């Protein structure tokens, strides 16, 4: 599979069908009639009734027959399908009913943000764009993860590092969850930036050459995490539990500031020791 850009109608069709099929009729007070149901989830006519549209309209949407639902219809579909907030935003993006957050994707850091990243020491910090391209970082982040300056620019991408860097891909204790959440973020970004060829090319490359990415991408999870926890296991330092925060500047909404903080005292001591040690070459 290759990806040259978002086909909103086709992706909208597949996404609606996937979300309809994951629903349990019993949760809506509908009889299961499992023997009579050829596919899992709700029937099209049941979703149509819940959303207040015709069954034919749902059929045409799921067949990608050129419809562009209004914001009101998108909202009704989101309620009917019980979409999570990130999934709801994704549906609005596919229907092209949500304002874009940036006219042009960021490829260089805003100078003030680059200065802020440096001044956040001793907290490990870095600046990313919606593609997970790493635009700026401080010394603590390089000692926690990798010397970004030594990498080719094409490899300064958090998703690429997690999937392909021989050391970093082994750092994450719960690696599949980290990869799954990263892919769910990329899918959301893919809908917001349908004309971003660099993002589409990145996704196409992962789909063509990484079986794990292709498998998780096909699940069509959509999620945007602003905070959470990751546990790293460094051969030279042991386990480090980290809480992370992702902040989005109002004046530069395409750039994201990522901060790590130790989640417990033992991790704090380990992190302090790691980031204060000069890297060996």
Alpha-beta classification: alpha+beta
* Helix run count: 13
The main sheet comes to: 5 strands, antiparallel
Q: What is the fold named in CATH at topology level of the largest domain?
A: Beta-Lactamase
Instruction: Name the assembly state.
Output: single chain
Q: What percent of the residues sit in helical stretches (DSSP H or I)?
A: 40-55%
CATH class of the largest domain: Alpha Beta
List the helices and strands in order.
Answer: HHHHHHEEHHHHHHEEEH
Number of discrete domains: 2
Give, in spatial order, the strands making up the sheet with the most strands: 2-1-5-4-3
Mean pLDDT across all residues, rounded? 87
Walkthrough of the structure:
By secondary structure, the protein is of the alpha+beta class. It has two domains: 8-94, 434 Repressor (Amino-terminal Domain), CATH 1.10.260; 111-275, Beta-Lactamase, CATH 3.30.450. The chain is 44% helix and 12% strand. It contains 13 helices and five strands. It has helices at 8-21, 44-51, 55-62, 71-80, 85-94, 111-119, 139-144, 158-164, 168-171, 175-192, 197-209, 211-217, 265-275, and strands spanning 125-129, 134-137, 227-234, 238-247, 255-262. Strands 2-1-5-4-3 form a five-stranded antiparallel sheet. Strand 4 and strand 5 (255-262) form a beta hairpin. The longest helix has 18 residues, at 175-192. The chain is elongated, with a radius of gyration of 21 Å. The mean pLDDT is 87. It comes from Amycolatopsis albispora. InterPro entries: Cro/C1-type_HTH, Lambda_DNA-bd_dom_sf, MLTR_LBD.
């Amino acid at each position: 599979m290759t990806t040259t850009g978002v086909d909103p109608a086709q992706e909208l069709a597949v996404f609606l069908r996937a979300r309809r099929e994951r629903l349990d009729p019993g949760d809506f007070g509908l009889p299961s009639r499992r023997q009579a149901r050829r596919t899992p989830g709700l029937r099209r006519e049941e979703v149509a009734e819940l959303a207040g549209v015709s069954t034919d309209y749902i059929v045409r949407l799921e067949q990608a027959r050129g419809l562009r639902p209004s914001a009101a219809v998108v909202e009704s579909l989101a309620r009917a399908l019980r979409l999570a907030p990130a999934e709801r935003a994704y549906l609005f993006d596919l229907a092209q009913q949500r304002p874009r957050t940036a006219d042009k994707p960021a490829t260089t850091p805003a100078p003030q943000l680059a200065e802020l990243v440096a001044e956040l020491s001793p907290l490990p910090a870095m600046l990313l764009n919606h593609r997970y391209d790493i635009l700026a970082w401080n010394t603590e982040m390089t000692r926690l993860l990798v010397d970004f300056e030594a990498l080719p620019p094409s490899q300064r991408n958090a998703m690429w590092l997690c999937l392909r860097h021989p050391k970093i891909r082994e750092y994450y204790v719960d690696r599949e969850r980290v990869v799954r959440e990263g892919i769910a973020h990329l899918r959301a970004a893919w809908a917001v930036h349908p004309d971003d060829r660099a993002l589409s090319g990145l996704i196409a490359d992962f789909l063509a050459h990484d079986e794990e990415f292709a498998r998780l991408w096909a699940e069509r999870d959509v999620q945007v995490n602003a905070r959470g926890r990751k546990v790293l296991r460094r051969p030279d330092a042991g386990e480090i539990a980290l809480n992370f925060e992702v902040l989005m500047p109002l004046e530069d909404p395409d750039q994201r500031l990522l901060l790590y903080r130790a989640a417990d005292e033992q991790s704090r001591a380990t992190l302090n020791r790691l980031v204060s040690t000069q890297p060996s070459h």
